[in-house]
Amino acid sequence: MIHNFNAGPSILPDQVLQEAAQAVLNFNDTGLSILEIGHRTPLFEAVLDEARSLVRELMSLGSQYEILFLHGGGTTQFMQVPMNLLDEAGTAAYIDTGVWSSKAISYAKLFGRVKVLASSQDANYTYIPKNFSVDPPVTYLHITTNNTIYGTEWHRIPDGKGVPLVADMSSDIMSRVTDFSKFDLIYAGAQKNMGAAGVTLVVLKKSLLGKVQRKIPGILDYQKHIEAGSMLNTPPVFAIYVTLLTLRWLKAQGGVAAMDKANTEKAGLLYDALDRLPVFKPTVVKEDRSRMNACFVMKDPALEQAFAERCKQEGMYGVKGHRSVGGFRISLYNALPLSSVKDIVALMEDFAKTHG
Ligand code: PMP
Questions:
Q1: Total-model pTM
Q2: What does this protein do (predicted)?
Q3: Residue 75 marked ligand-binding
Q4: Residue at a domain's end among 253, 275, 306
């Protein structure tokens, strides 16, 4: 039995893998592979239309939001957001919650002024900063809703005092009930909760656009992508198709509310074990713990090797922490079944008995 706790790209539902494999061989009984159809065909247009409308439905987005499927991952959004929204003389506010937000900050500095309102760097990013205030004029406020590397998550959306709110939701999109109407721009690589690597979802209010002076190359211009319906150039056809299959699966499970419930149960079970078993030490303050990535170390570092070895022997994949922080990280994305969490908890209990 194999369990996939990879942090990204990550586990996908079995059904999605079966359907994707079938579509590689014979897409919709056309005799053609999904990999060999033109993107400007009714066949692919139907895929894109359905993916767009499922995103709108699952996130309950009003008509003021545009939905784009773009290339380049979350990392390209670190650049594309300020390029489209921030003038050289303007100021964007960022909260620094680790590697990904730091990257977003460094890219934004290439386009305008950046004010880092708060940072949790002082405690190795093991909490979410809360004591900060947004003082306009600020062009937008940027947060990273889930910090994949450290295992912290914003459980309360900050009050932006009317300043447009931009969020990197790469590692918790569609995983919990969220009032998306509080956000003005959301971006997320699909490869954790929503599909395959290669496509990035961008949801944005059109009213944000057209306010910067600089010239923007077409391929990086949100406005041009909106006008072209995400078909400015060849889109990542297969990644969008896998995302569509995953969104269909998500809806069939009961949508974001069902994911929220399942993810809460999975995270509850795992954190309970981490708190209860004396050999493990969770690294994040309780109130800011992520329901997507649970990070921990061994109280006795000498046991790390033995625990890693035991996980490997029992087919528990992807439990090592990010190379920049070490320790362990268990990712609990949408497609991870509860049974995988129960199995690793059983392993942890047994390990604690032997080594406690
Ligand atoms: N933001 C977050 C929160 C992430 O976890 C990651 C990657 N794991 C990124 C951005 C970067 O995404 P990409 O590799 O798709 O550029």
A1: 0.98
A2: Catalyzes the reversible conversion of 3-phosphohydroxypyruvate to phosphoserine and of 3-hydroxy-2-oxo-4-phosphonooxybutanoate to phosphohydroxythreonine.
A3: yes
A4: 253
Is the same domain home to 136 and 282?
A: no
Q: Tell whether 247 and 259 lie within a shared domain.
A: no
ipTM strictly over 0.90?
A: yes
Domain for residue 62, yes or no? yes
Q: What are 224-256's pLDDT values in tens digits?
A: 999 999 999 999 999 999 999 999 999 999 999
What domain range is 71 assigned to?
Answer: 14-253
Q: Decide if 5 is inside a domain.
A: no
Residues 5-52 have pLDDT tens digits of 999 999 999 999 999 999 999 999 999 999 999 999 999 999 999 999
| One domain for residues 41 and 184 | yes
Residue type, 348: M
Measured between its terminal Cα atoms, the distance across the chain in Å is: 26
The residue written with tokens 């590692």 in the block is: 171
CATH of the domain at 273: 3.90.1150.10
Residue 74, marked binder = yes
Ligand 1 atom with the shortest distance to the CA of 75:
16
Pocket test for ligand 1, best of 71, 95, 166, 171 (most atoms within 8 A of CB): 171
Task: Give the closest residue (by CA) to ligand 1 atom 10.
Answer: 74
**Ramachandran class of 62: left when φ > 0, alpha when ψ lies in -120 to 50, beta otherwise:** beta
Q: Ligand 1 centroid to 72 CA: how many Å?
A: 10
Q: Is 63 helix (H, G, I), strand (E, B) or coil?
A: coil
**H helix runs in the chain, sequence order:** 14-25, 42-58, 73-85, 99-108, 222-227, 237-253, 255-276, 304-313, 338-355
Residue 115 Cα to ligand 1 middle (Å):
22
Cα 296 to Cα 271: distance, rounded to the nearest angstrom: 10
Per the annotation, does 40 bind a ligand?
Answer: yes
Q: Is residue 9 part of a domain?
A: no
Domain's final residue, options 253, 286, 311: 253
**Contact of 152 with 290, CB cutoff 8 Å:** yes
Identify whether residues 135 and 249 lie together within a single domain. yes
Assess whether 135 carries a catalytic annotation.
Answer: no
